[in-house]
Write a structure and sequence with these properties.
alpha+beta; Immunoglobulin-like; 4 domains; eight-stranded parallel sheet; 11 helices; 19% helix; 31% strand
Length: 664
């Protein structure tokens, strides 16, 4: 017998009926219907890509594997990064000299003079927030030197975090005379260090000039000497991005035009690439980085090579004759714009030209006679106003006249709405722009609310590039926005709308890409690194799952006959992959409750009963990945079984993103 307290039997019966009705209603929710035979639009191979900018020590100190900071003494403070050890008094023992009239790209060098054989004289380089050293790994040291006569000897010591020696070598410098020579030596580290340093000790007596002092690990990407950090490139390769946009971002514009990115100064021999200050050196007072410069060891040739390595289409962005409008708004007069336009035309020739052309020959001389197959280029980054439009028109006219099929990516400014955006959107469409680049850094609620943003965009005319976006979480920890699951699940929901509208959206990329744990200026970021490790954030895995499962054609995924873009906090999109013969359904549950739905596939032959299910999620929205727990939020793949003919009963966990792959 059931004891009733404060409720009579009639009320208990009524409550039971209501609960049962709710249960039945939950069980009888209309199914999600995927119409596999209705191909809405193609999904472009470039649909999901990556955006690289040299921010957060993304290049020097990041993906570019050079360990020596200020290797050619060209920083504003010529000995920044170097510490002098000297136990005798001679203020002329180390001098930085300038040969500007003879070598504009690389004018400075270090002159070492030791008058007597006795005494200690050494310089130690601190690296980029230290040097990551791996036990048992070979390190390749090199420098340029010049000496009137033999007398000075150079020895090397790798130092660990406690200044203990973990590697030694002697540098042979036998040549004498007025010409510059190169010396190199390789040695192996006996231990590991996260904050290592390199000491160069001078013994004997005499004078020697030094320049381009360099130290690289042997385990670069593809083992290329002077190449890139393999673990960071691997993170990109694992995403299989359709494109890579480079080199930025705001560094394209520069604080003023003198600091703009000039691609021609980033190719050729390393000592002929002219260093400039990175605008993120001083952009944020609270995250100032006075040692942040661009050596361009990672230049346009290396960017093209990287794109080729990871199977991504290259998307370079060029300055349009406008500096950053937030900082200086400096403009090139229209009648002086020709050199900027010529840079764009020459870049196409550098990437694609025959080896007999001027710039194709330069590419071939760098070791790549085959073309890079460049098909598109961005003109301007986040530029806006009529001053941008009139400059863009001149670029478009010149480029299209010579390369009619070449695609030009145009800027829609800094925000996804407002008068600035509306003006540009109208002007660019009237100009018949190929691709319009839209940026949105917003809180997670914006991404959830805008999953249908492109449903009403015109199907014809300009296509959309979601060039920079990230969910900026409202939860602030340690003084910065975190790459938490709250942001990532909102991004996943928004991306169902990008995918559903692949007829309009041809490209999209999260931004920024990399951040060094000890050298960041901006958060959140897709991939975090320190000197030895790297990990992908929850947002990284969202991007990866979309890129690895982009399919070839969009098909309808409907609930109650409508696209699923937030009803009951569910977001759903579907594609078919005609190559793998799969139907791929992406489901985001942005609510705090479990939700169960039938997924019914129409218009397909009998499906394989076994369904691949990959899930990404966390019980709490504040979950993050870290160096200690790099896969705390990461994909898990299992198999589930159809519950009927072409029907699957799927239960979505709270705050989850799932990819269902049904084999046809």
């Amino acid at each position: 017998m059931i004891k009733r307290t404060g409720m009579n039997g009639k009320h208990v019966l009524l409550a039971a009926c209501i609960a049962a009705a709710g249960y039945v209603q939950a069980q009888q929710q209309p199914p999600v219907v995927v119409k596999a035979n209705q191909l809405v639009s193609e999904v472009q191979p470039t649909m999901w890509g990556v955006f690289f900018e040299d921010i957060n020590m993304g290049a020097d100190g990041g993906i570019y594997a050079e360990l020596i900071k200020n290797r050619s003494f060209e920083f504003l403070k010529p000995l920044m990064g170097w510490q002098v050890q000297q136990d005798f008094f001679d203020e002329g023992a180390l001098q930085v000299l300038n040969r500007l009239e003879k070598n504009t790209p690389n004018p400075r060098f270090l002159r070492v003079t030791k008058k007597a054989a006795g005494g200690n004289l050494a310089v130690t380089n601190e690296g980029f927030r230290g040097m990551g050293i791996k036990k048992g790994l070979r390190y390749d040291f090199s420098l340029q030197y010049r000496q009137p006569a033999a007398g000075l000897s150079l020895s090397l010591e790798l130092l660990n975090n406690e200044d203990k020696t973990i590697g030694t070598a002697t540098v042979q410098t036998p040549a004498t005379g007025e010409g510059w020579q190169k010396a190199a030596v390789s040695f192996t580290a006996s231990d590991s260090a996260s904050k290592g340093r390199l000491r160069i000790t001078f013994t004997g007596s005499g004078s020697m000039d030094l320049d381009m002092i360099s130290l690289f690990p042997a385990d670069t990407w593809k083992g290329r000497p002077g190449g890139m950090r393999a673990d960071m490139v691997q993170k990109l390769a694992d995403m299989k991005p359709g494109f890579i946009r480079f080199p930025g971002g705001c560094i394209v514009e520069g604080f003023d035009l003198s600091q703009r990115y000039q691609w021609k100064k980033t190719i050729g021999a390393l000592d002929e690439r002219q260093l400039i200050i990175n605008r993120w050196n001083f952009e944020f007072a609270h995250r100032a980085a006075p040692d942040y410069f661009q050596t361009f060891g990672l230049g346009f040739f290396e960017y093209f090579q990287l794109a080729e390595d990871i199977g991504a289409a290259p998307l370079p962005i060029l300055n349009c004759g406008m500096a950053c409008q937030f900082n200086t708004s400096e403009l090139v007069p229209l009648d002086q714009l020709d050199p900027y336009i010529q840079d764009a035309l020459d870049l196409i020739e550098f990437a694609n030209g025959d080896v007999n052309t001027t710039w194709g020959k330069k590419r071939a001389a760098m070791g790549h006679p085959a073309p890079f197959n460049l098909t598109m280029m961005g003109v301007g980054n986040e530029n806006y106003g009529p001053q941008y439009v009139e400059r863009l028109q001149l670029f478009m006219k010149a480029i299209k006249a010579k390369y009619p099929d070449f695609k030009i990516v145009t800027s829609s400014g800094t925000d996804p709405d407002g008068k600035r955006f509306d003006y540009l959107n109208t002007e660019l469409r009237e100009m018949k722009a190929d691709i319009i680049d839209e940026h949105y850094y917003r809180n997670p609620s914006w991404f959830l609310a805008n999953a249908g943003r492109y449903d009403s965009y015109p199907r014809n005319g300009a296509k959309i590039f979601g060039g920079e976006y990230a969910g900026h979480s409202d939860k602030v920890v340690d003084g910065k926005r975190q790459n938490n699951w709250q942001a990532a699940v909102a991004e996943a929901a928004f991306m169902t709308g990008l995918e559903r509208n692949a007829a309009v959206v041809h490209m999209a990329s999260y931004a920024p890409l990399f951040a060094h744990a000890d050298g960041w200026q901006w958060t959140p970021d897709l991939i975090w690194v320190n000197n030895l490790q790297s990990y992908g954030t929850p947002s990284y895995y969202v991007q990866q799952l979309y890129s690895l499962n982009k399919g070839t054609h969009v098909v309808p995924a409907l609930w109650n006959g409508e696209a699923v873009k937030g009803q009951d906090s569910l977001y759903i999109s579907a594609v078919v992959d005609q190559k793998s013969k799969e139907i791929i359904v992406k489901i985001v549950n942005a609510s705090s409750r479990t939700q169960t739905r039938d997924v019914v596939v129409e218009g397909a032959a009998k499906l394989n009963k076994t369904v691949s299910l990959t899930t990404l999620g966390s019980e709490t929205l504040w979950s993050i990945n870290s160096f200690e727990q790099p896969e705390a939020v990461s994909p898990k793949t299992t198999n589930i079984t159809l519950t009927g003919k072409n029907k699957l009963n799927y239960t979505a966990a709270p705050y989850s993103f799932a990819v269902l792959k049904l084999k046809m």
